[in-house]
Design brief:
Blueprint lengths: L2 E5 L6 E4 L2 E8 L2 E6 L13 E2 L5 E3 L6 E3 H7 L2 E4 L2 E5 L8 E4 L12
Antiparallel strand pairs: 1-9, 2-3, 2-10, 3-4, 5-6, 6-7, 8-9
């Protein structure tokens, strides 16, 4: 599995591994690296908003909630200032591209 370092905000805040985008998101519950595609239909989870409880992210495409704690457990990561290092669930030798993805304001708290 690749261990990758990328920016927590601004240009380069997304790492795409074999076409799957990952971003660092920070809510009132804390920060973590998340897959930027909804597990239900691939919607733009980087534009999601937390539900009233703050325990789920609500996809903007179909308004289905996804457990934030479940998403956090999928990708181990450590933030160090303006960068985050994460273990991405992919095979060794995967194609990696750094790019920018906008985050919803609710996912960019303190980024």
């Amino acid at each position: 599995m690749p261990v990758l370092t990328f920016a927590v905000s601004g240009p380069g805040n997304c790492v795409e591994v074999d076409g799957v985008p990952y971003v660092y998101a920070r809510t009132v519950q804390g920060g973590s690296v998340l897959r930027a595609a909804c597990p239900h239909r691939g919607g733009p989870l980087h534009l999601a908003v937390p539900d009233r409880t703050g325990r789920q992210l609500v996809c903007p495409w179909h308004e289905r909630g996804t457990s934030l704690s479940r998403l956090r457990k999928e990708i181990p990561a450590v933030r160090n200032g303006a960068t985050v290092t994460a273990v991405i669930p992919a095979r060794a030798g995967s194609t990696v591209v750094h790019r920018h993805l906008p985050l919803s304001p609710e996912l960019a708290l303190g980024c």
